[in-house]
């Protein structure tokens, strides 16, 4: 906390699961010291340093549902749920997270995913009756006494992968793709949703085969990133193939091609190259750097 009593610009929220199910504790945290994330729809207000701006709960619509995001020390932090679902254009989302401070990404990702989920789930998927917010915003409950179903925020797993081809001379090439309608000359790692019943490894192999016609042998997990568009968990992987011929699925990709290690290194160093690199805040950027470092 700063000496003025305002939340510090950079802090990590304690999600405080023990508080969510305690109505008395939540009510106490909604006092004068509570803070509200400043959102316009799903877009946060940011200061000049790219940090999220916070206000007081008095700034929220009196009828708005409030989601408990967690604790900054002993101070409760909340976000208000829009009265109706909000459509955010990809360009607006990208412009926001380009400015967002790296250490604020997780806080925003959690808040955005939660409030968007609440705005879209006001009715029970089991019986169609109204639902009410529960457990501080980490649950919705059906009001129908004959149903009483509880619903929980979902996270959709997505694999994103760097696929390497090793040449006989020991050199390496990296498979990158370009999505439909992507700006400029951007190329990135291939990605796709994990389907029901699949392992991460199976999803990597299926997606690469579907999008580029390349069979993948070894698959290894590397890292993950929350991606609130609207509520995904990006599972960063790397894979190895010995196949060269690419067959692009034009319903999924505009293009896919092999790039040499030198070409990738040139682009990632900031020099103009054969393609534009993924933005620094995306896990794809990290995966390309890890590939260059042979992680």
UniProtKB/TrEMBL annotation:
Its cofactor is Zn(2+); Mg(2+). Its EC number is 3.6.1.22. Residues 153-289 form the Nudix hydrolase domain. One of its GO terms (biological process) is NADP+ catabolic process. It comes from the Bacteria. GO terms for molecular function: metal ion binding; NADH pyrophosphatase activity. PANTHER family: NAD-CAPPED RNA HYDROLASE NUDT12, NUDIX HYDROLASE, NUDC SUBFAMILY. This is NAD(+) diphosphatase.
């Amino acid at each position: 906390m700063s000496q003025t009593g305002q939340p510090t610009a950079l802090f990590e929220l304690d999600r405080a699961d023990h508080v969510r199910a305690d109505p008395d504790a939540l009510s106490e945290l909604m006092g004068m010291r509570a803070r509200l994330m400043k959102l316009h729809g799903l877009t946060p207000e940011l200061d000049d340093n790219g940090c999220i701006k916070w206000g007081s709960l008095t700034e929220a619509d009196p009828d708005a549902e409030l989601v408990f995001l967690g604790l900054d020390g002993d101070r409760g932090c909340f976000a208000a749920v829009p009265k109706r679902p909000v459509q955010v254009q990809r360009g607006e989302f990208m412009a926001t997270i380009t400015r967002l401070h790296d250490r604020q990404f997780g806080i925003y990702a959690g808040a955005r995913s939660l409030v968007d989920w609440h705005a879209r789930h006001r009715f029970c998927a089991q019986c169609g009756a109204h639902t009410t917010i529960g457990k501080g915003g980490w649950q919705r409950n059906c009001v129908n006494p004959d149903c009483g179903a509880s619903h929980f925020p979902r996270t959709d797993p997505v694999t994103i992968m760097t696929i390497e081809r090793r040449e006989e001379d020991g050199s390496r090439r990296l498979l990158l793709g370009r999505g439909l309608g992507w700006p400029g000359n951007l190329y990135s790692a291939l990605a796709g949703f994990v389907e029901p019943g699949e392992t991460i490894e199976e999803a990597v192999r299926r997606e690469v085969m579907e999008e580029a016609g390349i069979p993948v042998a070894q698959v290894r997990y590397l890292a993950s990133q929350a991606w609130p568009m609207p509520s995904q968990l990006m599972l960063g992987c790397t894979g190895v193939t010995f196949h060269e011929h690419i067959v692009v699925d034009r319903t999924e990709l505009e293009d896919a091609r092999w790039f040499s290690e030198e070409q990738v290194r040139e682009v990632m160093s900031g020099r103009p190259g054969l393609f534009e690199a993924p933005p620094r805040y995306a896990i794809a950027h990290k995966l390309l750097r890890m590939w260059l470092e042979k992680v």
